[in-house]
TrEMBL record:
TM spans (from-to): 21-39, 45-63, 75-96, 189-214, 249-270, 290-309, 316-338, 350-378
Main location: membrane
Keyword flag Membrane: yes
Tree of life domain: Bacteria
PANTHER family in alphabetical order: TRANSMEMBRANE PROTEIN (PTHR21716), TRANSPORT PROTEIN YDBI-RELATED (PTHR21716:SF62)
Name of the molecule in the record: Putative PurR-regulated permease PerM
Cellular component GO terms, alphabetical: membrane
Keywords for the protein's UniProt record, in alphabetical order: Membrane, Transmembrane, Transmembrane helix
Location(s), subcellular: Membrane
Membrane topology: Multi-pass membrane protein
Annotated family: Belongs to the autoinducer-2 exporter (AI-2E) (TC 2.A.86) family.
A Pfam family assignment: AI-2E_transport
């Protein structure tokens, strides 16, 4: 066949990429709108799933080591579950007496504290009434000096009042305002009970979810990879491995911090309140340590209430002791327990807490700090490696210093 007779056959360009139709974007927008509208119903489910994943990843290294000895995951999971239930039962039994005594002590101290609080409020109200009378007298004197006729008319009215004037409503006092505030707090008991029931349901769901997850986690993680395109499996595996290393380290450091803070509070409060109340305060401080940055502040409330019942300088000493614990935590305990690579910026954690509480409720604070770290890992593996492949942390720090008009030679 003559080469001149051959016509130019274009090379096979492969499957053409057709632009996505308008219907696809409409369906995507409708799905996003439906998700937003139903998020209030889906948030407990999403929170439960996140907690199950985080707790399972935190406990998985222990199960994996026990699995090497037992040859499976079911026996280690059963042993750990039985140990956890037994520990919680023993702790509740040991704390029932001290907590009951503490509640009785606080309830006995509240009336005395309320009586002492009313005295300065009554004094302030009486001083306000005297000041108002004095001010009215000064106003009458000024009116008499400026317009004597008006002053005489006010002193001797010509026409009697045919309709009795309504007595002026008493201005709300400080005590009545405080009582209204307490009544409002008690009136919201129904909402608190509903939220408590919802939290209990989430915790029970998470408990059983973690148990079944630890028994056989591979189908769940396999489903996660099944939702990714095949070309992204390598990158997804790297992200999963980094998260799997971070979560156990973070959980271990958090547990050690809880134990340390609880022990410190117990030792400091023992000489002031005795062993029973100090034990309750130590356990309260340990549990609230899970809430980053704000938990230690909340843990001072029951201690201050107990201190107010004792009177004298006790509230001041208790406040100083909690400030010392907070300073020791921020400067010694957290830097020692948390590695530098696990440190999270306080502003990022606080905003994450606000978002998680708004999205998931009170229990959202439990996933705030891990979510910040997970977002940071995903950002480094996906965004920075594709968009900023040659930019290092030192380059970003240098740009931040220039933006803040700081000298590059200044220390951090």
């Amino acid at each position: 066949m003559n080469n001149n007779d051959q016509t130019d056959i274009p090379a096979n360009p492969g499957p053409e990429k057709t632009p996505r139709s308008i219907a696809f974007h409409v369906i995507l927008g409708a799905a996003l709108l439906a998700f937003i509208q139903t998020f209030s119903l889906l948030s407990p489910i999403l929170l439960s799933f996140l907690l199950v994943l985080l707790i399972s990843l935190a406990v998985n290294p222990v199960i994996s080591r026990m699995r090497a000895l037992t040859g499976g995951r079911k026996l280690p999971t059963g042993l750990m579950t039985a140990g956890l239930i037994t520990g919680i039962a023993l702790m509740g039994w040991a704390l029932f007496g001290p907590m009951k005594a503490s509640i009785i002590s606080i309830s006995d101290a509240v009336p005395d504290y309320w009586e002492r609080l009313q005295k300065p409020l009554i004094k302030m109200e009486q001083q306000a009434v005297l000041f108002e009378k004095k001010l009215q007298a000064e106003v009458r004197t000024e009116i008499a000096l400026d317009d004597p006729a008006a002053a005489k008319l006010e002193a001797h009215p010509r026409l009697p009042q045919t309709v009795p004037a309504k007595p002026a409503e008493a201005s709300p006092s400080l005590r009545s305002g405080l009582m209204d505030m307490l009544k409002g707090a008690l009136g919201s008991f129904t909402a608190v009970a509903f939220n408590g029931a919802q939290i209990l349901v989430v915790l029970v769901t998470v408990f059983f979810g973690v148990v079944f997850m630890l028994m056989n986690p591979r189908p769940v993680f396999g489903m996660m990879f099944a939702m990714l395109p095949e070309r992204h499996h390598g990158r997804g595996l790297i992200i999963m491995q980094r998260i799997g290393k971070f979560v156990p380290a973070w959980a271990g450091a958090t547990v050690m911090g809880m134990v340390t803070i609880g022990l410190l509070v117990f030792l400091l409060m023992w000489p002031i309140f005795g062993i029973m109340d100090a034990l309750v305060l130590g356990m309260t401080a340990a549990m609230l340590e899970v809430i980053p940055f704000l938990g230690p502040i909340f843990s001072t409330v029951p201690a201050i209430l107990l201190a107010l019942g004792k009177g004298g300088m006790t509230p001041l000493w208790v406040l100083i002791a909690y400030i010392a614990v907070q300073a020791l935590e921020n400067n010694v305990i957290v830097p020692f327990l948390m590695a530098r690579g696990m440190k999270l910026h306080p502003l990022a954690v606080i905003f994450s807490m606000l978002l998680c509480v708004a999205a998931f409720g009170v229990l959202g604070v439990l996933v705030a700090a891990p979510l910040v770290a997970i977002v940071s890992i995903v950002h480094k593996e996906l965004y920075r490696k594709h968009v900023l492949p040659t930019v290092t942390d030192a380059d970003l720090d240098r740009l931040a210093r220039i933006a803040l008009h700081e000298k590059l030679s200044d220390e951090k």
